[in-house]
Amino acid sequence: MANVHCSVKNGRAGKGAAHALYVQGEGRYASRDDVAYVEHDNMPDFAATDPLAFWKAADANERANGRAYTEIEFSVPRELAGRDDQIRFARQMAYGIVGVHHPYTLAMHDTKAADGGRNVHVHLMFSERALDGIERGPEQFFRRANKANPEKGGAAKNRAMNARSFVADTRERYEQTVNRTLEKNGYEQRINMARNPRFEPEPKLGPVHARAGRDERREARVERVREIRAGRSEWQRLTEVHATTRSEIIDLSGDIRTALEERTRQMMQAAAKVPASPREALARFRAGRAAEAATRQGLEPASTPAPSEDELRARDASAVRAELAGKGYTTVQTPKPGQPYPGTILLVTDFHVAQHAGRDWATLHDRRQLLRPYEVGESPRIQYGQDGQERVQTASVKRRGPGLG
Fold first, then answer.
1. What domains appear along the chain, each with residue ranges and CATH number?
2. Catalytic pick from 22, 69, 329, 341?
3. pTM of the complete model
4. Calpha distance 379→211 (Å, rounded)
């Protein structure tokens, strides 16, 4: 499964109807030939026969800078070649999020991927406002909810869909849905949406405009795509090398003494040519790319041996402390068992997570001790057990702290 992707986006009032036309391939987008399937459900009575009327009403009646829709874009496993199976997967994902109360538009696109395979993906547009059995017109539906007299106010919003944890929860649901589908269809492969070079999404490049001149931002995205693909290829190569090396251990039959000596020799050779893990090897690969870049710029890269994972981790910690110090933070890296650490995530690297700890203090967490990956801007409550590992799956808190950048 090469096309693993799940992202959450928000659309402001005034953008809903246009985006609905885009994902459905209608209106000015009628010439699109990649729209494979479209469905709508949970629409209120005023939009039951014309779903586009719902998104037009959202544009017209949500507050000026309010949210007209939330969109989840996710890929369909390539193992599902039949359209019926693809639609069934899309519905499982959609129903797990919107249920039977949130109006939604679902559109499936089938395009050609960069690697030549199929890129079947789904756009799920939905409203945070939930149906409650009360009939409302287009204007009233999008008014502020009235808890005391629901019939006098608008449809209430599901605040969980606006929580910081919603993105992580959605990606976890996608991971579970994909893995259940793969298992049900007899595939051994499983996915993990945690940070992994194989599953890192590529930034969207968009079309090239002939008269736009030099677009530095697009060039930066192109370079990022190249780096991601190079890292992905290197990760795959290292994984295959590991698998091949581990399978080269000889059968201990015949002369046991000779076989043991041969096995020891093979294992020493394997240890010399294979890094401790693909992640460490990938770090060395990236360091090599940096050295190549330095050479292209006329600089002489250092001739020291490739650093170990512990050395890379120590250097990363020093770099994080330096960056935080430049922002006025003093860093502490002594999380204690049982003590909660609430605060906004300031910085995330391959090895560490920096969290705001109040005023000008920051706590540095080792990612090996955390249960899940975190993103900048999240406000989790991290707590450790006596073994030094995070012991509970954290829940986001509402307090907002400063960020870096």
1. 6-193 (3.30.930.30), 200-306 (no CATH), 309-382 (no CATH)
2. 22
3. 0.53
4. 43
